[in-house]
Amino acid sequence: MERPGDEGGESGESDDLLSELLKPLRLTGVFDSRWHVNAPWAIEGDAEQSCAVLHYIVEGGCWISGEGQTPLELNVGDLAVFPTGTAHRLSDRPDRQGMPLRAVLPERQPGTSGEIRIEGSGPESRLLCAGLHYDASAATGLYKALPWALVLDGPQVAAEPLLRDTLRLLAAPDRPVGPGDRLITLRAFEMALVLALRPLLRQLADNPAALPVLRHPGISRAMVIIATRFAEPWTIESLAREVGMSRSAFTAAFRTLVGDAPARHLTGRRMQEAARLLRETTVAQSAVPQRVGYQSSVGFHLAFRKWFGTTPGEYRIAAGPA
Known about the structure:
Blueprint: H1 13-22, E1 27-38, E2 42-45, E3 51-59, E4 61-65, E5 72-75, E6 79-82, E7 88-91, E8 99-100, H2 101-104, E9 113-118, E10 124-134, H3 141-144, E11 150-152, H4 154-158, H5 161-171, H6 181-204, H7 217-228, H8 236-242, H9 247-258, H10 262-280, H11 288-291, H12 297-308, H13 312-319
Parallel strand pairs: 1-9, 2-8
Antiparallel strand pairs: 1-10, 2-7, 3-6, 3-10, 4-5, 4-7, 6-11
């Protein structure tokens, strides 16, 4: 678990890489809940697939803990983000065993809300909790490599006024309800996630133990190239030369730091952009291959089908009008 310090992040390619990591994050649905709990209490959350989890402390406090992790205390105004939905426990004491979340919130469909009330004789706490479902194709190897939990304390949240005010509005018991509420809530949580990750990731750039790829000049530069120049005709050899490394050293370091082979990471970025063009724009399907770095339409078609399990044409039809 990481609680970043007060130092600012580096400029240059680290900032570019962090920007590219945040850019594709788009939520597809949100389940949010308000917790009113009195000690003693503890709730065990399951691991969530393609879902970030957010906990904002409105009143009181709690402990968060996970398997093999050091428990961390949260107080009023603190925000905890679990980027990849790792299983964890929230409780009034770090050693208390709890009930499964599914026992108190059996239905957690994106686009809906819930409420947890636990009556007890001890101190009261209030939390805003949310499961933020995102497009799995947008989760890069770097995103998946983020620490299991990231925390902004109250002063750090207060230093981001837009984040602070958005969280307060989302946590309000009388949150406005009306036409378009589901979409507004979705985009508000999406903004909160990006606003929270931005300072967290900048500070992680100063902590090589937390995100080592940001400290490796060759691999971090390659990540920026893949993120921004994916349409160029790269090979593993040309990428390695571009960042001043041998092919073997580049491939080994990339796998170690990113958790993926460079060729697969490049393909993933190209497929991500192809899906966006098919889903969100009116660019002709025949023009998509060249836009994402394929000289052969047949090669692109085969790669797309292998990646998504469907053809580009079927994908566009299923996505509906741009």
